[in-house]
Every structure is written in C-alpha cells, then in structure tokens.
Amino acid sequence: MQAPQLILPALLVVTLVIQAIWPRYRLLVVLGGAGASCLATSVLGLGHAAQLLSDVPWDVLVILVGLGLVSEVLVESRVFGVMAMRACRWSGADPRKISLLFAVGMYSHGGLVNNLTALLLILPMLLGLYKLVGVTQRYVTWSIGLLLVACNLGGAATPIGDFPAVLLLGGGKMTFTAYLVRALPTTLVGLVILVTLVVYGVRPERGLSKSPVSAAITVDTMTALYRNVRVDRRMLVPAAAALSAMIVADKGATPELICWIGAGAALLVRPSLGERLIRRKVDMEAVLFLLGLFVMVVAVRRSGVFGSVARGLVALPIPPVAQLVVFVLSAGLLTALFSAGPSMASLLEVGDVLARVHPPNAVYVGLALGVCAGSSLFTTAATSGPLAQALTERADLRDAEGRPLRFGFVEFLPVGILSFVVIEAIAIGYCLLAVQRGW
Amino acid sequence: MTQADVELPAGLDQAFGAVAGELGQATSSWLFVRAVARCAGDRAVEGLADTAGPQFVVLDAVARGWLAGVREQVVDPRPVLEAIGSATRLVVVGVEATFLDALVARINPAVKIAMIAHSPFAVDWDRVLDNYGGRVERVDLDTFQHWAGGKSALLTFAYGQNDSRTIVAPLWLRACGADVRAQFRALVGWNVLEAPMNLYPRWLVEVDVDSFTHFVPGT
Fold first, then answer.
1. Chain A contact present for B116, CB below 8 A
2. A65/A346: higher pLDDT
3. B-interface mutation test, from A213, A231, A233, A236, most B Cβ less than 10 A away
4. Number of separate domains in chain A
5. What is the CATH code for B78-216?
6. What is the pTM of this model?
7. Touching check for A224 and chain B: CB below 8 Å?
8. B38/chain A closest Cα distance in angstroms
9. Would you say residue A49 lies in a domain?
10. What is the four-CA torsion angle of A45, A48, A54, A56, rounded to 10 degrees?
C-alpha cells in the first residue's frame, strides 16, 4: 500500500473519530480535517485544493439548501401544527393512539422535510401533549424513541428526506422515481413492523392512568391553542408544487435545477418572507459540514483506496449476495459510529464499484437502508438524537410524582437495538429480493 | 357513570403550567375547570382547586367561583375599547386568549396591535400570533418602546380587585416603569377575574389600581 492510501484515509478516519467524540466542535474538526486533506494531496502530488473543490458534488449542496428552504416555507404554511392538532383530536388524547399517530406523522414529515426540521416541528408539540396527558419514563422512552426511528425511516423513504438519499439523487446514482418506488415501500414495511412491535408489543402506555379528565383537558387545550390557526395555502401550494416537481427530474431537468427553481418560486410567493428565510434559515452548519466531508472523501478517492476496499469486498470468498449483506451491515455499523453523512459519503464510493457487479438499485437502496439502521442504533448516530435529548431536557417533563423524565443515550438504547435489528433485516431482505428479481 | 366518582389524575399542575403562558391564566383556568366539571363533576373541581390552586391562584379563584355558581366567563371588550379611545397603536402586555380574541375582533382595524413576547412559562409565540392572522405583531421587552407615543396605549390583564389593589403579571412592572409611563397615552388594566384572590399570588404581583390611567373592572 502506498503512502497516500495510508495518510488520506487515516486523516478521514481520525477526523470522523474526533468529531464523533466531541460533537460540539464538529464543524471546526471537519473543516480542519478538510484543510489538512487539501494540504496532504498537494504535498503528495494528488491534486491542489482547487482540483479537490471542483470534484465536490455541489449539486448535492444546492439540493440540500433548496430543500431546506422549501421545508421552511412548509413550516410557515402552518400545515404541520394544524395536522398535529387534528391528530390529537382524532386520537381523543389516548396515549397509545398518540404514539401511533405521531410516529406515522413523523414518518410522513421526515420524508418531506429534513429530519432536524421535522423533529423541531413535531417534538415540541408532542412534549406539550405529554405534559397535558401526564406520562411515565417508560412512555417517554418508547414513544420518543419510536418517533426518532420513524423520522429516520421517513428520511430514507424519499430522495429528499435526508441527505444520504439526497446524495444518491444529486450524484445521479438513481432517479427520483427509481429511488422512491423502492425505498418508500421498504421503509413503510419497516415502520409497520416497528410500530406494531412497540405500540402493541412493548405497549409504552402500560402503567399510565387513562383518565377521561386528562383526555378532555388535552383535547380542549389543543383546540384552544390552534383555535384560529389556519393552513396558509399561499405558502403550502408552491412548496408542495416544488416538491412534486422533483419527480419531473426524471424527464429531462436535473434535480438540483428543479430544486433551485422550485425553491426560488416558493420563496417568491412572499418576497419579504422569502428573503428573511434565505438570510436566516439556511442550514449553514449542514452545508459546511458536508462541504468539509466531501473534500476529505474526494481526497481519499484520489488515493484510490475506495476502489481497493470495494475490490477487496468483491473478492471475498463468499457468494456475491453475501457481499452485499456484508456491505449493508458495514454501512449500519459505520453509521452508528460515525453518523449518517460521513458513512454515506464514504461508502457511496465503495457502492459505485459494487454497483458494477450487483444490480445498482440493490446496492444504493440497500446502502441507504443500512445507513438508516445505523442512524437508529444510538442517539449519537444522527443529529436528530441529541436534538431530541435537548428538547426533552428543556421541556422539563415530570411524572405524576414529580420525578424528572429523561431521554438520552441510555434510555434510547433498547429502542435503538430493536430498530437496528428490524431495519437491517429489512435492508438485507430488500437486497436479497432485489438481486433475485432484478429490481 | 357517576361523574363525581371519576378520580382526578396526578400532574394537573404540570399540565396547567404548560398552557398558562400561551392561553393566559384565566383562559386556561376556565378551560381546566370546565373540562374537569364535565368529566368528573363539581367535587373534582374542588379537588382541582385544592391540588393545583396553591400554585396557580387564578385557577383556584376560577374553581372556587365555579363552585359558588359562576358558570360563565363574562367577556365584554367595550369598556376596554372606550379606555383605549382614539389610540392608533396598542401594546398588549401578557396573554389572555379569550379576552384578546374578543378585543381584536371588535377593535378598529386601523389600530395596530403588538404583543410583548415574554413569559415565565414556555410559550410558542409564533402559534400565539398565528391565531390572530397577522393582526397582532410581536415585540420584545427591549423594543416595545418604539410603539410609544401620544396615540399609543398599553394594556394588561388584571386578576381580581381588592379595594385599591389588583394583581397583574410581573411583566407589567418590567414594561411599565417610570420611563415608560409618560410615553403612552393610556395605561389600561382589564380585570378578567370576577372575584378577588384569597391566596398569595404566585407567578403574579400586586399593584395599585391607581397606577393605571384606566382600570376596567370585571362585572
């Protein structure tokens, strides 16, 4: 193995480990690592910073920013709040139905807007509901845990739900529809299994007193909180149209162009709001994080190590389909350790090589599902985990005896293990079927 | 079902605290009292006053009033509109959803309305304002004085009256300091509670009725 094949991957891995250990410094770490990678490739004669930057998939970043802004327009339409209120009324504030409806709702939202936005929209409402209903530690653990996993599954269900899938779409690996028709039903199966296991097997509401007084207060309160809130169709329609237009990308226009124009059109409906959203709501943290990551991955690609790993995987003395299984399992475990973005960006390079041997759709969708499984193993594996923890702590939830209720790494672990096993099984099942039937 | 047999769930004080900031203490109290009375009867309303009342005195007063026969919340914005007079700008200090809804529905559409977004409780201010369809703007404690002037009024909600004293949200004292008093045409207190409170007003503070230029008593 040559020096570049040791130095550049080592830089990537060390950077990822450090950012995983100290997530509060992750931007500083990743951008520092990217700078070091540029320096290393220059010194090693593998290309200057300008060449590395020209290889960065800017279309993915355009899609990320565009979708983020479309998400914000959707938020401004108030559609999510109104739907949450209706879900509460439909459920009659029954804790089991709340878990069920919000998990399904979170899956749907996760497929339309990025995971952090979806969580920021839904979780505070849910925590408010918990205060009204009165909950236990068991309920908080399993219902918020299920919500997080549903969010991850929703993110993997569509090519615009989260950036692992955006990477596939932006990189031209798969078309919008090709991804959607495979990932949506597969993640839906995962959601149904998990919801059934948790809501009807674990039964988080066990031990909760089902009081008609609590139910009445909860429903009345939610109705009062949204008494005059209406969905702003002027905002909803353009945002929905922009999202729908992504499907047109199959018919000529590229997804980043559709996203750029669609987001612009949605923002133009109310120019002052649109300008404010662009100035204040673009997720610069995600953009800079991915930019740093892409630069490091491009540097490693130039060393040829991804090709070597993929060739090693293909050369394993196991049946070809077992190689895919190893790939998907590795994606899950690496994601659990390093989080979704870095794992997807790195493994996609390996996936490209595997896709020459195996059906490409099986490789890419299997990879996205494996990453989804890994994101669901630990709260630290996806940015939505720490956010859920922070929001729950801020809500200062307490049980009937006044004891504080927590949601963190330890509390989530049983939910995470169950989810990881289920989603990995679904991912492997999908790969096996896809290979067998040539999907 | 004998409604009186339904037991009150624990943690109602936590539930009340979750909504008191967003709907207002009087509005939330009526909501809670009505729901409890509907599901569990008047004995449960007494239980509600006993358990959550000491922490939330407005809830205690509304519950005790309910037991004494006050079954309807009287909301008449007309005296407030008179007090505001010809003001073209109104800054609202504190939230009382039922009362503010009635006022906004009746006030001259030319009057600009702002609300100071500040509360000791957790509040989703975007949702609060969404209920007014763009009619009410959001201002902060350190910027609301931009709304001051000879045609501006400051309004807050008061909870009961005991001789010359009434109870208001502490935000009123922070907003309506000596510097601010002279900057507004009218300082209006709107009493939204029928009966005076009997307990120490936690979360609230006692002020002189005379500190308002206009005090609109409850019925």
1. no
2. A65
3. A213
4. 1
5. 3.40.50.10470
6. 0.80
7. yes
8. 8
9. yes
10. 80
Return the structure tokens found at B92.
């609202």
Nearest CB to A213; choose among B18, B36, B122: B36
In 3D, which of A4, A208, A243 has the Cα closest to residue A114? A243
**For residue B120, which residues of chain A lie inside 8 Å, CB to CB?**
none
pLDDT of residue A177: 85
Pick from B15, B22, B39: CB nearest A134: B15
ipTM of the complex: 0.92
Question: What is the tens place of the pLDDT at every residue in B17-31?
Answer: 889 999 999 999 999
Residue A50 lies in a domain: yes
- Residues B125 and A153: their CA atoms lie apart, in Å, by 31
Question: Each residue of B109-163: pLDDT tens digit?
Answer: 999 999 999 998 889 999 999 999 999 999 999 899 999 999 999 999 999 988 8
> For chain A, what is the mean pLDDT?
87
* Residues B155, B82: Cα–Cα separation, whole Å: 12
Give the closest residue to A305 by CA, choosing from A343, A259, A368, A347.
A347
Across the interface, whether the CB atoms of A395 and B122 are under 8 A apart is answered yes
Give residue A414's pLDDT. 95
Give the model confidence (pLDDT) of A62-78 as tens digits.
877 888 888 888 888 88
Residue A319 lies in a domain: no
Residue A77 carries which DSSP code? Answer: T
Through-space distance between the first and last CA atoms of chain A, rounded to whole angstroms: 37
> Which residues form the domain of A295?
1-55+289-302
Is the Cβ of B34 closer than 8 Å to some Cβ of chain A?
Answer: yes
Delimiting residues of CATH 3.40.50.10470 domain(s) in chain B: 78-216
Q: Which of A133, A212, A227 sits opposite B6 (nearest CB)?
A: A212
Nearest CA in chain B to A222: B19
Would you call B32 an interface residue with chain A, using a CB distance cutoff of 8 Å? yes
The answer to whether A213 contacts B130, with C-beta atoms less than 8 Å apart, is: no
Residue at A420 is within a domain: no
Q: Which residue from B10, B27, B32 is facing A134, i.e. has the nearest CB?
A: B10
CB burial of B5-37 (b: ≥16 within 10 Å; e: otherwise) equals ebebbbbbbbbbbbbbbbbbbbbbbbbbbbbbb
